Structure to design on (242 residues):
């Protein structure tokens, strides 16, 4: 046996679709092994039919996000020794998303909500005439910078309790994206975007439980972005009614 093998873990992997079940595998755990490593071990050495997603393996793409012992995580950046309970670990697909097969979710509804929240940049008229000069210390620039690094992995969406009981809720990632654009001086759809996120399924549906911020692998604060949208929506309503 490889001298680097420390012990054997009892690994439970979700198999099938939403009506599937957990299947158990004995997996050798090596020093500094990640959760993604053990899933790959199962697929390559035990059961080639296991389906899962990954790409970069270094925390840049977010495609390997799964639920590990009940918590949504990037599996490529999570050491198995840090999250195993005893010698056991359970790996499931992300919550609140349709399961295609095993650990693979359908992300369509997640990105459709980005569209609903006005997640696409809309240039202002005449944007090609002159470059926008935005100082790095400008308040709006700093607000956008604090939220701009989201890569759309879906971890915050899977960890959001509001999405769980209210599926139409836009979710923290879509609202965080809207916040970055609301603070972008080059964008020309600010009023329309605020209207899009101020509805019953928008920012006001957030209960500020902070799960999105707690689970974000990029250490962003979607809850703060959503709070900012609430303030902007209230200000827009006040101006509209004055």
């Amino acid at each position: 046996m490889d001298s680097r093998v420390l012990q054997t873990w009892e690994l439970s992997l979700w198999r099938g679709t939403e009506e599937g079940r957990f299947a158990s595998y004995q997996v050798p755990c090596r020093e500094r092994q990640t959760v993604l490593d053990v899933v790959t071990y199962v697929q390559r050495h035990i059961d080639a039919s296991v389906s899962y997603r990954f790409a970069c393996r270094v925390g840049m793409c977010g495609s390997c996000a799964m639920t590990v012992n009940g918590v949504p995580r990037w599996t490529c950046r999570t050491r198995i020794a840090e999250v195993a309970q005893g010698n056991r670990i359970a790996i499931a697909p992300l919550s609140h998303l349709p399961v295609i097969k095993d650990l693979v979710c359908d992300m369509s509804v997640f990105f459709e909500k980005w569209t609903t929240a006005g997640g696409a940049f809309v240039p202002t008229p005449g944007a090609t005439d002159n470059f926008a000069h935005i100082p790095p210390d400008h308040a709006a620039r700093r607000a956008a910078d604090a939220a701009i690094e989201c890569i759309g992995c879906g971890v915050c969406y899977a960890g959001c309790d509001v999405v769980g009981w209210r599926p139409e809720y836009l979710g923290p990632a879509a609202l965080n994206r809207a916040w970055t654009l609301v603070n972008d001086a080059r964008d020309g759809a600010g009023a329309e975007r605020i209207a899009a996120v101020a509805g019953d399924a928008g920012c006001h549906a957030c209960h500020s439980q902070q799960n999105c911020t707690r689970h974000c692998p990029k250490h962003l604060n979607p809850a703060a972005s959503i709070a900012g949208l609430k303030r902007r929506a209230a200000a827009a309503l006040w101006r509209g009614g004055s």
Summary: Residues 222-241 form the longest helix (20 residues).
